[in-house]
Amino acid sequence: MGGQDATMVLLDENGIRCDGRKIDEPRRIMIKAGGLKNADGSAYIEFGDNKILVGVFGPRDVHPKHMSDTDTGILRVRYHMEPFSVSDRKNPAPSRREIEISKVIKEALEPAVMLEKFPRTAVDVFIEVLQADGGTRCAALSAASVALADAGIPMRDMVAACASGKVADTIVLDVNNEEDQAGQADMPIGYMPSLEKITLLQLDGVLSPEEYKKCVEVGVNGCKIVYELQKKALNDKYFGTKSD
Ligand code: CDP
């Protein structure tokens, strides 16, 4: 976490961050629904310099069969970073971090997906991080929701995700990689806007109770921005003029 020097670089006297953004400004976000012919549903997201592709398969038979549940469907999520997605080549073998992120994304999606509607089956979500620049779990979770909707999986709501954090003693929206490394706190949030329910909340760093509340508020507002773009992506594919 950053000290005084990092503080001065991360936020200037005009409240402008290291990448030129204001404290409540997200990075550029582009979401596209569909695109993968062989998947039942798919989505692509660019969130700042993050580039992530998601493919959804199912509901389909579970192998091995004993992994299935007679009462409900199951959701399986694999978050995977390409070796070339970061500046230091990443070992292609699944890392502890990828296993953890797969688990938190699965748990963040489960409240949204009506798994009870397709017992004995599985829905698989494959997340490929092509380029990473801080905040991949939020970007991946947002794209996964769109890919699930694109696959026609019944859902209560989409999960929109965005991080907030503390940089130079200030609560900011959408922490980038540099801020994540040198900042004071990072709080990824997943939120279902229509249901007003948080499904993911992690915190790396230390916050006072007031800062914590502010971080949640700022992060949820970011999720609402992402949600509009998720809906737009689906509207563009299914009701828009763009061909896919
Ligand atoms: O990506 P996210 O912020 O959700 O997770 P993180 O574990 O906080 O990782 C922050 C960033 O570190 C990633 O987005 C990557 O840009 C970078 N990273 C890296 O450079 N090399 C790795 N092996 C893993 C992550």
Structural class: alpha+beta
**How many angstroms does the end-to-end distance come to?**
44 Å
What ranges have pLDDT less than 50 throughout 5 or more consecutive residues?
Answer: 1-8
Query: What is the total tally of β strands?
Result: 10
- CA radius of gyration: 18 Å
Bound molecules: cytidine-5'-diphosphate
- Superfamily (CATH H level) name: GHMP Kinase, N-terminal domain
Structure commentary:
By secondary structure, the chain is an alpha+beta fold. The protein has a single domain (4-238), classed as GHMP Kinase, N-terminal domain (Ribosomal Protein S5, domain 2, 2-Layer Sandwich). Helices cover 30% and strands 29% of the residues. It is built from 5 helices and 10 strands, in the order H-E-E-E-E-H-E-H-E-E-H-E-E-E-H. It has helices at residues 4-10, 96-109, 136-150, 177-182, 209-238, and strands at residues 29-33, 41-47, 50-61, 74-81, 121-131, 160-167, 170-173, 185-192, 197-201, 204-205. The strands form 2 sheets. It has a 5-stranded mixed β-sheet. It is globular and about 60 Å long. Residues 86, 90, 97, 132-137, 177, 180 line the site of cytidine-5'-diphosphate (CDP).
